[in-house]
Amino acid sequence: MEFYEKAKDLLSKNQLEECHEALNKLIDSRNSLSSNSLSLQVLADAYNTRGHIKYLWVDFDAAILDYSEAIQCDPSLAVAYYNRGQIHYRMGRYSLAEVDLLQALKLKPDFTDAALNLRQVQKDIASGHKFNV
């Protein structure tokens, strides 16, 4: 858990490179973590946080992979579905965004940002909005 606490501290100081390194070390050490739910939750949070850093670096494909890993570790982590849905939306993959945002709301019905973004996704789908690459 040393890397986890270090990563959280670095993130709070907006030291993204260093936080990313600490998260890599934590994730790489996952084999030494037991499979109890606390360890899986920590690992899910680590993947989600690393995904957020990759999102900030505009490395969307890598961020999606991390959000997906977070969901595998903890399928109840609503924020990981939300984050992945946000990227799908930005990439013009509206149907995938809708699925993720619906799941985020199913897990956390009071997730205001997810509800607002889902409304926008559904509006874009209904209007036949096409994403231009």
Computed Rg: 16 Å
CATH superfamily of the largest domain: Tetratricopeptide repeat domain
Number of strands: 0
Q: What is the percentage of strand-forming residues? A: under 5%
Low-confidence spans: none
- Class from secondary-structure proportions: mainly alpha
* Helix and strand run: HHHHHHH
Q: Helix tally?
A: 7
Give the end-to-end Cα distance, rounded to a whole number of Å.
Answer: 42 Å
Whole-number mean pLDDT: 91
Biggest beta-sheet profile: none
CATH architecture of the largest domain: Alpha Horseshoe
CATH topology of the largest domain: Serine Threonine Protein Phosphatase 5, Tetratricopeptide repeat
Total number of distinct structural domains = 2
Shape: elongated
How would you briefly describe this protein structure?
The chain has 133 residues and is mainly alpha-helical. It is 75% helix and 0% strand. It is built from seven helices and no strands.
Molecular structure report:
The protein is mostly helical. The protein has two domains: 1-74, Serine Threonine Protein Phosphatase 5, Tetratricopeptide repeat; 76-133, Serine Threonine Protein Phosphatase 5, Tetratricopeptide repeat (Alpha Horseshoe). 75% of the residues lie in helices and 0% in strands. It has helices spanning 2-12, 16-28, 37-56, 60-73, 78-90, 94-107, 112-126. It is elongated and about 50 Å long. Keywords: TPR repeat. TPR repeats lie at residues 44-77, 78-111.
